[in-house]
């Protein structure tokens, strides 16, 4: 699975503008830090760090440096440390240009569910709700299907929505979708993946860019 997750994270990088302030959500999104070129973006975490670096090597872990998911991170030279309240002020004030989030489900309108599974303990929504409302661009990084093989990109979410705002881009191990005019548009296929494979693994309707349909 880690190989698949890394491939998804690498496919997110082209959707991050140079120099952008970027928040990486828990899970696959955190791996994006390991694929960004040095200085390509300014990574921010909700617990109060701007200037997050790549995942530390085993012998370089600093127990005082963690992201919002409590996993070890590094800090780049010139990084800033501040209170969580200031971090959320950045998010809610529209100062985060790109948020990369995970998702349990994505519906046909591009809305996501990523914080609660009915019947399981709720640990809290975290910063996802604020990021969906406050970030200028939201990119989802997720596997195309769940562990049991069921589609994650569905006509209607059966899990509680995180926010009404749709995301802008969905990146999976199979494909990339843009959200346009209230619907999903397939814009890219991963290497070795066919359009028929994407259709078989997706229950939400989607349009296909002409260049992809000819691939």
Automatic annotation (TrEMBL):
Segment forming the signal sequence: none
Domain of life: Bacteria
Transmembrane regions listed in the UniProt entry: none
Pfam families xref list: CoA_trans
SMART domains: CoA_trans
Record NCBIfam families: pcaJ_scoB_fam
Membership in a protein family: Belongs to the 3-oxoacid CoA-transferase subunit B family.
PANTHER family: KETOACID-COENZYME A TRANSFERASE, SUCCINYL-COA:3-KETOACID COENZYME A TRANSFERASE SUBUNIT B-RELATED
Protein name: 3-oxoacid CoA-transferase subunit B
Organism, scientific name: Pseudonocardia abyssalis
């Amino acid at each position: 699975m880690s190989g698949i997750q890394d491939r998804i994270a690498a496919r997110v990088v082209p959707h991050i503008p140079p120099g952008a302030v970027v928040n990486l959500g828990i899970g696959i999104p955190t791996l994006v830090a390991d694929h960004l070129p040095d200085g390509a973006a300014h990574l921010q975490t909700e617990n109060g760090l701007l200037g997050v670096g790549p995942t530390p090597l085993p012998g370089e872990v600093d127990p005082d440096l963690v992201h919002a998911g409590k996993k070890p991170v590094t800090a780049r030279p010139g990084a800033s440390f501040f209170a969580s309240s200031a971090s959320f002020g950045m998010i809610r004030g529209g100062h985060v240009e790109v948020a990369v989030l995970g998702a349990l489900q994505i519906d046909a309108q591009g809305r996501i569910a990523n914080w609660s599974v009915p019947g399981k303990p709720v640990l809290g929504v975290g910063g996802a709700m604020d990021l969906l409302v406050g970030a200028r661009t939201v990119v989802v990084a997720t596997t195309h299907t769940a562990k049991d093989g069921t589609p994650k990109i569905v006509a209607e979410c059966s899990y509680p929505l995180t926010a009404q705002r749709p995301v802008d881009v969905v990146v999976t191990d199979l494909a990339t979708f843009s959200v346009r005019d209230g619907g999903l548009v397939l814009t890219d296929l991963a290497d070795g993946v066919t359009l028929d494979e994407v259709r078989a693994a997706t229950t939400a309707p989607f349009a296909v860019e002409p260049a992809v349909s000819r691939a």
